[in-house]
Write the structure tokens for this entry.
Amino acid sequence: MIEIQALTKYYGDRKAVGPMSFSIEKGEIVGLLGLNGAGKTTTLRILACDLLPSSGSVRVDGLDVVDHPDDVRARVGYLPDHPPLYDEMTVAEYLLFAAKIRGLTGAEARKRVDEVTSATALRGVRDDVISTLSHGYRQRVGIAQAIVHKPQLLVLDEPISGLDPVQIVEMRELVRNLRHEHTTLISSHFLSEISETCDRLLVLRNGEIVASGTEEELSTRLLEGGSIVITVRGDGGQAKRLLTSIKDVRSVEILDGGAGRTGTTTLRVDAERDIREDACRTLVLADIGILELTRSERELESIFLTLARPEGRADNGARA
Amino acid sequence: MRNALLIAGRELRSYLRSPLGWIVASAMLLLDGLLFQVGAMGGAKLSAQVLADFFYYVSGITMVGAIALSMRLIAHEREKGTLVLINTAPIRDSEIIGGKFIALFTFIVGVTVLTAYMPALIFVNGKVSVGHILVGYAGIILLGASAIAVGLFASAFARTQVIAAVLGAAILGVMLLLWMAAKVADPPVSSFILALALHHERQRAFMNGILRLDNVVYYVAITYFFLLAAIKTMEARRWR
């Protein structure tokens, strides 16, 4: 669906992107991950034909963005980081306008507006003026305009940014539901935001892709050891001793201050290798009930920082 | 053309839904009315002179109104982030610029037409030809189209509305004052510079009811030139 070869983009003398090469198959949901200024937005704007590349080849559905920009635009739905909304219009008027400038005729456009307002849960506000909508609804209208012409490729620039936790869950669900009809490329600077939604991640640093793969692949490749969080029954004292005794474990920390009213304890284990199997075996043999075992959120952050932080930037300098 | 009309329709509706459109239209009509009153009641004059003075005032107000509204056409959308919606739609830059021009031109023509009762009042106590009125309005509308095109180019070029307004006003100002530069130049350069001046000689003929093809061609050429410059500016921005 997307084939990018040796793409570069310069703003004056400053290189924003490149050299960059990657491809995305039809039906994939791919996350483009990077810190601010890594080149995510520039890459997405080139795919949406809002910007033209300085050099290299960018093809969408086999069509070059420089040679056939209008054909590419007809195949792409783009949501920029700030939804491009006309505040004085109602939701329905705006979506009708967006549909028509993407080439849909009057009847088709009205039908699609009905469909996308249902798909994005906007029916209740379709006659509301956009300036009166909350941030979450504005983001939904942004998605609705991006899919109103049934594009083959959906390009979403930080669609989850600024949403509250409930809206984030709803937005993830919405994006997942769109996978049947669209190939999707989503950018974010939060790994945890998009790792659950995407099939594959591309990590950008200084305009170049420094890693690609699933979250599991990236963590296996990059982290020598691993950090896991285990919830066990009891006060956690025995569990901590047993876990500390496992080979290659660096530290074990009780997170919730020991068993409280729930009778459970949560521990974080840092190790030089993946010790999930050993930890389970050791605890089960000691007859300690394991309620939950997950990779640490801190590990996700660590993967991302390892990949995305520009070289030479201090450890405490960047936050994902 | 369909896309240009879609953009024009949305733009025109935005004038009518925002205070800006109403404020500019009201201010233009108020000033037109006041200046007509001053011109018509300012002592004994020939009816044709009253009419010529009226067109003189309206031409200035139309230029100011055109610059005031055209500064927002592209720069405002760029500032608000909405330009990306039409920039990433399968429509050409010429359709975007064409649509924006049609919208503001329609608005300016509408406001200008609303002043028609003023020259009609001259018939109460005077006598002017309908042809004089029509030619005078043709001059206003052609001048308005040129001012909109200049403003549209400035709006496509500038990052913000304020810079667009300053740039548009500066270009118009220079074009208006070229007749002064012509005075200090020697022939044939002076004739060439005078021929480029936007208002001085060109509008005088229209104001006096004289329709000359070279004046019409001049305004159409100026409009075309700046619209083309605006289109090329939009195209160039995608490479930046």
User: Anything to note?
Assistant: Chain B touches chain A at residues 3, 6-7, 10, 13-14, 17-18, 81-92, 238-240 (CB under 8 Å). Residues 2-239 of chain B form one domain. Chain B has 13 helices and no strands. Chain B has one domain: 2-239.
